[in-house]
Write a structure and sequence with these properties.
heterodimer, A: alpha/beta, Rossmann fold, 2 domains, six-stranded mixed beta sheet, 10 strands, B: mainly alpha, ABC transporter involved in vitamin B12 uptake, BtuC, disordered N terminus
Chain lengths: ~260, ~425
């Protein structure tokens, strides 16, 4: 990633702060992301990772700080704005409407409509079948509500939704938390594939090994503050653990 | 729980006839219960329940509650409740009655039976209903006051706004053209009823054919042709049977004589005329079609169900759930106004207690019709059938001669029983709709 110095970052979140009733969930955090790069966001529960990316996905508003996309300052005040900048998010909760079928969830908020403005369920199901054939060929339950699907199938619906609309910036919040080994492998392959297509990915994870395997850089948060951002190739598991648990930057250790 | 169905299926399993026809088993169960109810009352009353006259009355009595029940489906699907619809109906009814009898004739100089009086009155009622509904929706959606509280307040406020407006007086008689919506005062007659039946059959057959063509265009599996034909035959039969039974009800001879005398003619000997389809029922049918299209084929409807299923997911998908709440309650208000047209036209005047307790009948109809109070599930046709079942129970018991307190005890028990059966059904089918 030596070329990064000259390149304009795909996303830069600068000095972001979010407070919930006096508690600063995110406190002056700066992170960035380049095209074709995977940046891991690490930290304990409550470190502020999810809050930080929800600012980018439009679910929360930052109290302070700025967001730049391709070097231009942008204002993201709701999920629609985020989608307009091709920012797609796979939430930890999956954010699926359990009573609707896979195609309705995939196109929720962006339905395909007929010439008279009615939703075109046939066209949406056909598109859903196409993308699911790529992501999860075993998926068959297109007419059942997603509440009838297994955890892995639900996850693949959420992933399909993020991938279908030509995301340039993808946020994945613990995408493998609910998955078995086989499905986790599929997600890893997908991340590699999307990365090669030049998509920038923020990957939130608890799993240090997953971050070491998949990410180019890792930003570690603790108690709402950024501990630091490191090149994954230059640190060890223990360095990352130290950052997560003790909030200690590896460079500090080197200096002392 | 779902593992059995995901196992690879090598042999095409033998499908039951219900599966092949792709029938809605919940709807089928409700229709079954309704048929049992009707036959039971018919036997108990010695054949007086299933007469053309009673079928005609039953449909007319159901319309007002059924129209509001379709709106209540959307309200309940979005995890809200509207306790104010009966009071809202009264306010709208008072507005329209005063429009016809006082504002338009006295202030604007238009007569009571002037051709524009009824349209202006109805329009003003719909606007008032929609605005009050939107206001309640704003309090619920934007100020985050629970719907139960807002509409409980509305129940008291709008009932007494109507009282205040009219000083508690009964206002009438109403405009002649307005009264057309009141049932016996406005019917299509035999010929136009058959025309309507024919159009309805053609529309139903077209929609079945169109749905099949759409599925084939995308290469989805379709029902065998004979199954489509059977469905088409059942639907057509039901429509034509309904029209036939309404057309079988003859206008009483004394009433016909009066009608002829009013026109300055004398009635020919042996003349007879059927009521046919009441205009109010036609209104209900149009509302039902419109609301079903909204529910199934528009973004608005899709967002209503998505919000009911998972409000957070809807919000994260970019749906403005607050505005959605305003729109749902505005629609409910407008439908309450439409019900006010039907109810006051049926009475022939606005009375101070019009629509009292309607909110409970409407909620009960929606819930008996399979609308889940936890949100996300409900159908328009179910709610209308629910309203019909409620009305049949009530008038059936009255015909049998059950005491008034016992009638309400039975209706209350049936409501609880219906919801329990619905819960069992959902458990068994895994929330399939």
């Amino acid at each position: 990633m030596t070329a990064q110095a000259q390149q304009v970052p795909l996303v830069e979140m600068r000095d972001i702060s979010v407070a919930f009733g006096g508690v600063r969930a995110v406190d002056g955090v700066t992170v960035d992301l380049f095209p074709g790069e995977v940046v891991g966001l690490l930290g304990h529960n409550g470190a502020g990772k999810t809050t930080l990316i929800k600012v980018l996905s439009g679910a929360y508003q930052a109290d302070e700080g700025e967001i730049f996309i391709n070097g231009e300052k942008v204002n993201i005040s709701n999920p629609r704005d985020a989608r307009a900048y091709n920012i797609e998010t796979i939430y930890q909760t999956l954010a699926l409407a359990d009573n609707l079928d896979a195609a309705s969830n995939l196109f929720l908020g962006r339905e395909i409509v007929t010439s008279v403005g009615l939703v075109d369920d046939g066209a949406m199901e056909a598109e859903a079948r196409k993308i699911m054939a790529r992501l999860n060929p075993n998926f068959e339950k297109f007419s059942a509500p997603v509440s009838a699907l297994s955890g892995g199938q639900r996850q693949s619906v959420a992933i399909a939704r993020a991938v279908y609309f030509n995301a340039r910036i993808l946020i994945m919040d613990e995408p493998t938390a609910a998955l078995g080994p086989h499905e986790t492998q599929m997600v890893s392959e997908l991340i590699q594939q999307l990365k090669s297509e030049g998509i920038g990915i923020f990957l939130i994870s608890h799993d240090i090994h997953e971050v070491m395997d998949l990410c180019d850089r890792a930003s570690v948060m603790k108690n709402g503050k950024l501990v630091g951002t490191v090149d994954v190739a230059e640190v060890t598991d223990d360095d990352l653990l130290g950052m997560i648990i003790l909030g200690k930057h590896p460079q500090d250790k080197a200096k002392s | 729980m779902t593992d059995t169905s995901s196992a690879p299926i090598a042999v095409q399993p033998r499908k039951s006839i219900v599966q092949t026809l792709e029938l809605d088993t919940r709807l089928l169960g409700m229709i079954g219960a309704f048929v049992v109810l009707c036959i039971g009352f018919d036997l108990l009353t010695g054949g007086r329940f299933l007469t053309p006259r009673n079928v005609f009355n039953l449909t007319i009595q159901t319309v007002s509650v059924a129209i509001m029940a379709t709106g209540m489906v959307f309200v309940i699907v979005t995890r809200n409740i509207d306790l104010s619809v009966g009071s809202l109906l009264a306010t709208c009814s008072a507005t329209m009655a005063m429009m016809q009898t006082w504002i338009l004739p006295d202030l604007l100089g238009l007569g009571l039976n002037h051709p524009v009086t009824a349209p202006i009155a109805i329009f003003s009622g719909l606007v008032i209903g929609g605005l009050i509904g939107a206001f309640q929706g704003y309090l619920i959606g934007y100020l985050a006051i629970p719907a139960f509280i807002v509409t409980l307040g509305g129940l008291l406020v709008w009932r007494n706004v109507a009282w205040y407006m009219t000083s508690g007086q009964t206002i009438g008689p109403l405009d002649k053209n307005f009264m057309v919506f009141g049932g016996t005062n406005g019917t299509l007659g035999a010929f136009w009823s058959w025309v309507f039946g024919a159009i309805a059959v053609l529309a139903a057959l077209y929609s079945i054919w169109n749905a099949r063509r759409n599925k084939l265009a995308h290469g989805f599996p379709v029902k065998p042709l004979w199954a489509e034909a059977v469905m088409g035959a059942i639907v057509s039969g039901a429509i034509l049977g309904f029209v036939a039974s309404l057309n079988a009800y003859q206008i009483p001879v004394r009433r016909l004589k009066r009608l002829f005398e009013a026109r300055g003619e004398t009635m020919p000997e042996g003349y007879s005329e059927a009521y046919g389809l009441p205009v109010s029922v036609l209104v209900l049918i149009l509302v039902a079609i419109g609301m079903t299209i909204i529910a199934k084929r528009t973004r608005f409807g899709r967002y209503i169900f998505a919000t009911g299923g998972n409000p957070d997911a809807a919000e994260l998908s970019g749906i403005n759930t607050r505005m959605l709440t305003v729109k749902v309650f505005a629609l409910m208000g407008a439908l309450a106004a439409l019900s006010a047209v039907v109810a006051s036209a049926r009475l022939g005047n606005h009375s101070n207690d019009i629509g009292t307790l309607d909110e409970l009948r409407v909620i009960a109809a929606a819930v008996i019709g399979g609308t889940a109070l936890s949100g996300g599930f409900g159908t328009i046709r179910g709610a209308i059938l629910g309203a019909l079942i409620m009305q049949s129970l009530q008038s059936g018991m009255a015909m049998v001669g059950v005491d008034a307190p016992l009638q309400n005890i039975v209706v209350g028990a049936v409501l609880v029983l219906a919801v329990w059966i619905d819960i069992l059904y959902r458990k068994k089918t895994g929330e399939r709709l």
